[in-house]
Amino acid sequence: MNPARRIREEIAGAIRSGEWRPGDRVPTEQELAARYGCARATVSKALGELAASGLVERRRKAGTFVAHPPVHSAVMAVPDLAELIAARGEAYRWILSSSEAEDAGEAPCPGRVLRIEGVHMAGGEPFAIEGRSIALDEVPEAGEADFTKEAPGTWLLGHIPWTQARHVIRAVTPTRKEAGLLGVNASTACLELDRTTWRAGRVVTHVRQLFRGDRFDLVAEFDAGP
Prior knowledge:
By secondary structure, the protein is an alpha+beta fold. The protein has helices at residues 3-17, 29-36, 40-53, 81-87, 152-159, 176-182; strands at residues 25-26, 56-59, 63-66, 73-74, 92-105, 111-122, 125-135, 164-172, 190-199, 202-212, 218-219. A hairpin with a 2-residue loop joins strand 9 (190-199) and strand 10 (202-212). Helix 1 packs across helix 3, helix 2 (29-36) crosses helix 3 (40-53) and helix 3 crosses helix 4 (81-87). The termini are far apart.
């Protein structure tokens, strides 16, 4: 296990177990670097990922503290669900339901696309269902990727840089099929995230993710400037 992942998982485990409570101060980067025998940059990366997942809060000149509530993701970012779930100290698994290349025509993903459906699992339970289109004209290598082993969002973040993203967020009730996949009642409120990302003005991917309403929060943070 690489040092950044080890630091992230051990801190997340301490928070999830209750050993570290909301408001507790996390050891400094220098202290963690000495403890794990790694560079401060590695520690900073791990703490940054924990902050992005909502488990810790980094305060300028004050340090890093255990956050409350424990789970959220910045709306303006494009989060990796595998990383978010792992940072919470839960086992992550992606289950691919289908993957098929077809001609989509125009919006939201023009031309030939790879359509992917699957379920994100956290701690052995459904966390979110996903339906995604990847523009094969823009990302031809996606056609050869093995999405039985890695979720498409994780693969895209690791291989394809994006320059623009648009998020549409809604509270919705799931269809009967969606409720079954999520393991909830059909009347349960869910969070729908509809996202399109571009690279240099060309669509890379469009995804619709449906989350159980009790498992995930999206939080927008803005800096008003001077």
